[in-house]
């Protein structure tokens, strides 16, 4: 990922809002590396997919930069979320 990549606040608002609407406040991260939007590891129920579609306006079949580490680490450092295996969970 380029060092000058910008992470607008809307990303974090979107992720928090989406997590809050799930049954257990948890979503899979998604696996951008080696996958395209819509692949099994980068499907519509993953954070990477949702951010790529909603914020960066990507389409199914597109490749994307891996952003989940930065997104999840900021939300974890802010004590809003916790890491689960291959997923992110909103703290209650």
Give the overall average pLDDT: 93
* Inertia-based shape: globular
Major beta-sheet overview: 3 strands, antiparallel
Number of helices: 3
Rounded to the nearest angstrom, the radius of gyration is 12 Å
Structural class: alpha+beta
- Helix proportion range: 25-40%
Total strands: 3
Description:
With 92 residues, this protein is of the alpha+beta class. Helix content is 33%, strand content 12%. The chain has three helices and three strands. A three-stranded antiparallel β-sheet has the order 1-3-2. The chain is globular and about 35 Å long.
Q: In a few lines, what is going on in this structure?
A:
The chain has 92 residues and is α+β, with helices and mostly antiparallel strands. It is 33% helix and 12% strand.
Describe the SSE topology.
Elements: H1 9-20, E1 26-28, H2 47-54, H3 68-77, E2 81-84, E3 87-90
Antiparallel strand pairs: 1-3, 2-3
Key phrases:
single chain, 92 residues, alpha+beta, globular
